[in-house]
């Protein structure tokens, strides 16, 4: 039975797509500016099972852009804050909460622990991101990856594409090159923006660990990336396949 809180979505999609979403299982890795809103949108669409993964704690510098970040949640685990929020949205959701960083074989353990209908990569460090995408491909799990939202301000440039068709975005280029070396060249859906980043807004610092640098962000851009990733998952799951023919032509990096 479709619960009342989903009545507006039911009006839009109809019973069968909603019932399909209610039986699906989605993995979201990374619950920052992109991943937090992505997980929430997937839950609000009625997906019945989710696993969320993030070892980070809320810092007040996250308050400009991250769903779990409030002054009242400072110092708490993002995964636990998001878990409470998702259960308040959908009390019936079957939720697995993993407050940990994933890398190497642990990635494959998590992917093998359940049957996932979709995986979302919102990881913001390069090596774990590449290994996660590669593992999803090898294990036959559909995946969508969020690329660089930091340093960007123009939402009209954000698009859904295939990784091989991305351009200008530095993170996309690094991910693409590493995956190409590992033999993964096609079939990765991504959300990216070709907007050029002001390099003066990037600061290399040890405070960014495990990343190498900090980059300026604005409130709405990570949320837009997260909503677009969620749209890929939701539409694919209720069998309205997402096309990746974006509005822009392919330009050189």
UniProtKB/TrEMBL annotation:
Spell out the Pfam families in the cross-references.
Answer: ThiF (PF00899)
Query: Gene3D superfamilies annotated for this entry?
Result: NAD(P)-binding Rossmann-like Domain
Residue stretches spanning the membrane: none
Task: Return the InterPro entries for the record.
Answer: ThiF/MoeB/HesA, ThiF_NAD_FAD-bd, Ubiquitin-activating_enz
The organism's superkingdom is given as Bacteria
Q: Which residues form the THIF-type NAD/FAD binding fold domain?
A: 11-240
Read off the CDD domains from this record: YgdL_like (cd00755)
PANTHER family under this entry? Answer: TRNA THREONYLCARBAMOYLADENOSINE DEHYDRATASE (PTHR43267:SF1)
Q: What is this protein called?
A: tRNA threonylcarbamoyladenosine dehydratase
